[in-house]
Amino acid sequence: MAKVSGAQCLADMLAGYGVTHVFMVPAVLRRTFAEMERRTKIARIHTHGEKSAAYMADGYARASGRPGVCMAQVIGALNLAAGLRDAHLAHSPVIAFTGGRDPKTKFRKVYQEVDDVPAFEPVTKWNATVDDVSRFPDMVRQAFRVAVSGAPGPVHLQFRGNEGQIDAEEADMEPLVETQFARVPPFRPEPDLKSVLAALNLLQDAARPVIVAGGGVRASGAARELVALAEKLSIPVATSLNGKDSIPGVHPLSVGVVGTYSRESANRVVGEADLVCFIGTETGGMTTHFWAVPKIGVPAIQIDIDAEALGRNYPLRAAVLGDAQTVLSHMLDHADAKTAGRRKAWLERTRSICGEWRAKYGPMLESDAVPIRPERICADLTKHVPDDAIVIADTGHAGMWMGGMFDLRAATQGYFRSAGHLGWAFPAGLGAKCASPGRPVVVFTGDAGFWYHIGEIETAVRWKINSVTVVNNNASGNQSKRGFDRVYGGQQTEQARELWTYRPVNFARIAEDIGALGIRVEKPAELAPALARALAADRPAVVDVVTEIEALAPLAVT
Ligand SMILES: Cc1ncc(C[n+]2csc(CCOP(=O)(O)OP(=O)(O)O)c2C)c(N)n1
Q1: Tens-digit pLDDT profile for the chain (558 aa)?
Q2: How far is the CA of 250 from the centre of ligand 1 (A)?
Q3: 45 within 8 A of 66, measured Cβ to Cβ
Q4: 287 φ, ψ to 5°?
Q5: Residue 379 CA to ligand 1 centre (angstroms)
Q6: Distance 95 CA to ligand 1 centre (A)
Q7: How far is the CA of 508 from the centre of ligand 1 (A)?
Q8: How far is the CA of 300 from the centre of ligand 1 (A)?
Q9: How far apart are CA 558 and CA 554, in angstroms?
Q10: Where does ligand 1 bind, in terms of residues with CB under 6 Å?
Q11: Whose Cα sits closest to atom 20 in ligand 1?
């Protein structure tokens, strides 16, 4: 073994794991950055805030299935921890490095220092300190192992020294890398065949079954097997928001996103089902509209890689523990296509429910109104986003509009969304574009969401991270309108609008000023050409769409 510095070891290991970008606000692990320049091709993206650095790492991870790496010195550590929360909620493998306390000086009122470690506890799968340089290799390996294994999630390593100066020290170390843990999933655990057959028999016997596919399907790369099984047995498929790209929205068996930020047809189909098959979903509040869709007690089966998820919220007739792709492949092998005939009437029923949704919302999806309806933006994105694109949605109204009104057209398109944090999508889109420079990345965000990290337009321009960001600009956070109407007894005062409205701002002009392409869209017919221009541009693009402030997304049906 050779004597090497922590910095050399860390730089070599990150490169060995295939890390292409790291996201941070300096100054942390400075020597490691110098070694990255000498020894690797890793791009060191310094951002305008630690939270957006974490969101970029998260977008990078979700787009690629490979851990996204973000970093902060001690004073930025809690900003970084705040940014891990969405990754934690969405099971995204993000690895966070921070600088931390030195035993020689702690408790002496060191400049900028508090004990940050506890703050990482609720948002990580593993939260550890690196106190001796000889531990770099095994701790970094464990960080990757934990981030991608089982249900993936964030990891935090705190390096000794406020700026992680431990990386200057030397030890006999081998920068050994286990490439198996460079991406999700490192293992595909085989299920117990008896449990697979039990679940399959229930599915085949059911007259009105539905599959609810979640983020575990995308983590496992099991979309193809899922759609094949659904087709073989004629079973309609709803998805969680996190599993939206498990099946294209235009597929005849797709009924839409179920739950709270959902499509009416999905909630109605799941509500009428006589058997619900949950695959790779936590069956959390958002996916089940707080356990009302389906109702607790409905006959249910569940497939998950995490034993503790099985039956957490719905009592099960059958539970299968294993990797989604592996389980679905076994089901496909054993499935009897002849049983599909039993579900002819059910499929007709689900098609008619979907048709009713289309008839009800068609006028909004095709609306020529000015200011523009958000539904019309979603419909234009459905039509014009390229087949290989990654589409990313913010939360709040953006999550509702896109979850309910936007459809993926092709199995080759990707989709993911904020798991709850407003402002996540724009930086996440930049991270996704870093991970997949060859694919178009299209972000949908509200203006309240866009304001959070607007400074990252500069980062995008500086690094030529050419994502396209579509801003639903109603000069407000109008998702809050309903809530304030309610607390004012049905009718807000004029003054109450100060709680959720902003000054009108032209984001296209701001984008242009910073060096991005900015396009202002005020009429629906301008949307498609603006998207085409943005996608063809050789710089980041912001499509600023002026929309109707009174437009409210439909609420979930039960
Ligand atoms: C970090 C964070 N803070 C607050 C919220 C609550 N919240 C949800 S949506 C929303 C306003 C959304 O505004 P915008 O993005 O402009 O979309 P619009 O509702 O106007 O369509 C707020 C404040 C949140 N989801 N996340």
Answers
A1: 789 999 999 999 999 999 999 999 999 999 999 999 999 999 999 999 999 999 999 999 999 999 999 999 999 999 999 999 999 999 999 999 999 999 999 999 999 999 999 999 999 999 999 999 999 999 999 999 999 999 999 999 999 999 999 999 999 999 999 999 999 999 999 999 999 999 999 999 999 999 999 999 999 999 999 999 999 999 999 999 999 999 999 999 999 999 999 999 999 999 999 999 999 999 999 999 999 999 999 999 999 999 999 999 999 999 999 999 999 999 999 999 999 999 999 999 999 999 999 999 999 999 999 999 999 999 999 999 999 999 999 999 999 999 999 999 999 999 999 999 999 999 999 999 999 999 999 999 999 999 999 999 999 999 999 999 999 999 999 999 999 999 999 999 999 999 999 999 999 999 999 999 999 999 999 999 999 999 999 999 999 999 999 999 999 999
A2: 28
A3: no
A4: -80, -20
A5: 22
A6: 26
A7: 21
A8: 34
A9: 12
A10: 395-398, 420-422, 446-449, 472, 474, 476-480
A11: 477
Which residue among 479, 545, 555 is best mutated to probe the pocket of ligand 1, counting the most ligand atoms within 8 A of its Cβ? 479
Tokens of 204: 């085949």
Residue carrying structure tokens 């407000």: 476
Question: Tokens 């389906």 appear where?
Answer: 294
Cα–Cα distance for residue pair 185/183, rounded to 1 Å: 6
Alpha-carbon distances of 64 from 5, 87, 514, rounded to whole Å:
30, 14, 28
Please identify, by atom number, the ligand 1 atom nearest to the C-alpha of residue 452.
1
The order of strands in the sheet holding 468-473 is 414-417, 390-393, 441-446, 468-473, 541-546, 517-521
**Does the predicted TM-score (pTM) go above 0.70?**
yes
